[in-house]
Design a protein that fits this description.
This is GTP-binding protein OBGC, chloroplastic. GO terms for molecular function: GTP binding; GTPase activity; magnesium ion binding. Keywords: GTP-binding, Magnesium, Metal-binding, Nucleotide-binding. One of its GO terms (biological process) is chloroplast organization. It comes from Protea cynaroides. This protein is α/β, with parallel strands linked by helices and about 650 residues long. The chain has 16 helices and 21 strands. The protein has helices spanning about 10-30, 70-80, 95-110, 115-130, 145-150, 175-180, 360-370, 420-425, 440-455, 460, 475-490, 505-530, 540-545, 570-580, 585-595, 600-605, and strands at about 40, 135, 190-200, 230-235, 250, 270-275, 280-285, 295-300, 305-310, 340-345, 350-355, 385-390, 400-405, 430-435, 465-470, 495, 555-560, 565-570, 615, 620-625, 630. The strands form five sheets. The chain has a six-stranded mixed beta sheet with strand order 12-13-11-14-15-16, sandwiched between helices. The chain has a five-stranded mixed beta sheet with strand order 5-3-10-7-8, with no helix packed on it. It has a five-stranded mixed beta sheet with strand order 17-18-19-20-21. Helix 11 (about 475-490) links the parallel strand 15 (about 465-470) and strand 16 (about 495). Helix 3 (about 95-110) packs antiparallel against helix 4 (about 115-130). It is elongated. Bound molecules: guanosine-5'-triphosphate and magnesium ion.
Length: about 650
């Protein structure tokens, strides 16, 4: 297949320099390293296959240090998983090797005769594109030493392949691994998280009677339980990632206090506030591998949505007092707070997204047009996380620009890093496509990245975009510019040329983007206005509606093999959950309710027989034909005729 290289020239140049530098320094540092953990074997060309050193922007190709390094494990993980770091060249076509590895996996899957353990190892190697044979274990001393080695800038890397840990404490392991394959640990959970929220349970009501001097027969005075705490989700403008959910994923609101004597109502449970970054989409967690139901998205700082309302407090006996029952010995349990798993997904709220192949100069462009200071270096995947910058114009007009990690061929299928962040571009109104003018085939690079965008999402490909041909300060780029321009013009696209490094042509690009953005915003204004007026509490409203479901609405299903009848209905199930069975009057009330809401009648109609099991919520009973009521050793069969129960709310 024709070479799709974007960086061949760069890497040939770089690799000669870098190898000479790194060989010298690694030899020096190897001798300083007192406790090396793993040693790299010499590569086929006699040179150690070291990862490329970053090259400073200002230093014109001089080796320099990283501006900010991720923790060592992440760095190693990243290196191990991105096989291309081991080769001296990184190019779009490099991922042919990965494709070949994929095919290898398929062959292994088909070939049942291959020994399992052997094939597993090969598949792993194929996945990583890494030949484990290149490393040899020298010393298995404590892992803690690694940090020291790292801090000293030691170039003997402790390569260890570790299973990526799930961000969900053991839940949905397989899904997480598949989804986050190839992403360094520091980035996991950055823009996706799965959290558990639970509204507070209501406090229980109590049975109490007033006893006071000179107040004979003081009457019932058991207070109601307090309401459980609510769960809110709020946008915190200072957050720009979902990183806090990497460690803390459980959010439980406080339960309401129980009621007390002297008609004291229990205190309300404490609310819980889940803070998310602007641009977070919230979904109900779906089954493994499936996307859950969309609930809402929070865009602006300060926006707050009530997610789950707390459970209602149970009524105390004072609430059950009536003309016919002046001494009620009955109280309710507090209502259980609803719980659910939520999927959070952060999509950056940027106006403009800068996309392009790795090393094209995206971060350099952002650093020139805004005050943002992204890491810039002469190696692919310098940018691991999106960077945001604000471009200011006259009249206080601004636009937010996001610089995204580079896209590779196959990115939509998970190669490289860019796909992890493509979703961020979904919210951008306009894209700037930076093309590396120093690459071997800029037209091909352009096509490949466009195709990735299309494959990821057709809507993304439809977004208006501007093409910026970069590195025009280099003669190689100038040579290619004319043919690139002509080929794009033939397709009706008018590309811009610029040199991000010295700022030439960037002004034109920025103004063109801004014009496009203004036009786009105008078009979208109506839709945005509609979106802003959305009711963010609609989830809580649904829960409240479910709670107020009538007790008369239920469905009965029958399992003839076990002679079981299942009565399902939100109202009646809630009633069972709130019934406090330790009071005998509760049992009578329960019988009465079943009679009144028509469960008994329906069961008789459907042909319930003596001894059949009937299940309502947590309650299991046996049908007793003698008086058409449920019978059970626990349940009283006495008539509840004289008990007046309050209307169900
Ligand atoms: N000569 C020249 N070099 C440039 C120009 N723009 C960027 N570079 C260099 O290209 C290299 C890559 O630049 P970055 O801005 O890090 O590229 P990127 O697209 O953000 O790369 P990734 O984050 O890895 O995807 C750096 O060494 C820059 O100095 C330019 O206009 N001219
Ligand atoms: Mg970058």
């Amino acid at each position: 297949m024709a070479s799709l290289s974007t960086c061949v020239a760069l890497h040939t140049l770089y690799s000669a320099q870098a190898r000479a530098n790194t060989r010298r320094s690694s030899q020096r540092k190897l001798s300083q390293n007192r406790n090396p953990k793993l040693k790299l074997r010499t590569g086929p060309n006699g040179l150690p296959p070291l990862p490329p050193s970053p090259v400073d922007l200002s230093g014109g190709g001089e080796a320099t240090t990283y501006i900010r390094l991720p923790p060592k494990e992440d760095f190693v993980d990243d290196l191990v998983q991105s096989s291309n770091f081991f080769s001296s060249e990184v190019k779009l076509s490099d991922f042919e090797a990965v494709k070949a590895a994929e095919e290898k996996i398929l062959i292994h899957e088909n070939d049942r005769a291959v020994d399992d353990s052997e094939s597993e190892e090969e598949i792993l190697e194929a996945n990583l594109g890494l030949d484990f044979g290149k490393f040899e274990l020298l010393d298995q001393n404590s892992v803690g030493d690694n940090d020291d080695d790292y801090d000293n800038g030691d170039e003997v890397l402790g390569f260890q392949y570790e299973e990526p840990e799930s961000f969900l404490d053991g839940e949905d392991d397989s899904e997480g691994e598949e989804k986050e394959k190839g992403v360094p640990a520091v980035m996991r959970c950055f823009d996706r998280a799965k959290i558990y929220v639970k509204a507070g349970d209501g406090g229980n009501g109590v049975v109490a009677f007033r006893r006071e001097k000179y107040v004979p027969l003081g009457g019932p005075s058991g207070g109601d339980g307090g309401k459980g705490g609510n769960v809110y989700v709020e946008v915190d403008g200072s957050m720009n990632s979902l990183l806090p959910f990497r460690k803390n994923i459980h959010f439980r609101a406080g339960r309401g206090s129980h009621g007390q004597g002297k008609n004291q109502v229990g205190a309300k449970g404490e609310d819980v506030l889940v803070k998310v970054a602007p641009g977070t989409v919230i979904r109900e967690a779906g089954k493994a591998g499936e996307q859950g139901k969309f609930l809402f998205e929070l865009l602006h700082p300060g926006q707050r949505a009530q997610m789950l309302p707390g459970g209602r407090g149970g009524r105390g006996n004072a609430s059950f007092k009536s003309g016919t029952n002046k001494v009620p010995k009955i109280a309710e349990n507090g209502e259980k707070g609803m719980e659910m798993w939520l999927e959070l997904e952060l999509k950056l709220v940027a106006d403009v997204g800068i996309v392009g192949a790795p090393n094209a100069g995206k971060s350099t462009l952002l650093s020139v047009i805004s005050a943002a200071q992204p890491t810039i270096a002469n190696y692919p995947f310098t940018t691991l996380l999106p960077n945001l910058g604000v471009v200011s114009f006259d009249y206080d007009e601004t636009m937010v620009v996001a610089d995204l990690p580079g896209l590779l061929e196959g990115a939509h299928r998970g190669f490289g890093l860019g796909h992890e962040f493509l979703r961020h571009t979904e919210r951008c109104s306009v894209l700037v496509h930076v093309v590396d003018g120093w690459g071997q085939q800029p037209e091909y690079e352009f096509e490949a990245v466009r195709l990735e965008l299309e494959l990821f999402s057709p809507e993304l490909a439809e977004k208006p975009y501007i093409v910026a041909f970069n590195k025009m300060d280099l003669p190689e780029a100038v040579e290619k510019w004319t043919s690139f321009k002509e080929s794009l013009q033939a397709r009706g696209i008018e590309p811009f040329c610029m040199s991000a490094v010295n700022g030439q042509g960037t002004r034109e690009v920025v103004y063109a983007v801004y014009e496009l953005l203004k036009k786009r915003k105008k078009e979208n204004q109506e839709a945005e206005g509609w979106a802003d007026s959305l009711n963010l509490n609609h989830v809580a409203d649904i829960v409240n509606k479910q709670r107020s479901a009538s007790i008369n609405e239920f469905e009965i299903s029958h399992d003839s093999s076990s002679n079981t009848w299942l009565v399902v209905g939100a109202g009646i199930q809630r009633f069972v959950q709130m019934t406090n069975w330790k009071y005998s009057e509760s049992v009578r009330r329960f019988q009465h309710v079943l009679e009144a809401c028509g469960v008994n009648k329906s069961l008789i109609k459907l042909g319930v027989k003596e001894g059949d099991r009937v299940i309502v919520g947590e309650m299991e009973m046996v049908w007793d034909n003698s008086n058409d009521k449920f019978g059970s050793s626990n349940l009283s069969k006495s008539s509840a005729g004289s008990v007046k129960w309050p209307k169900w709310k």
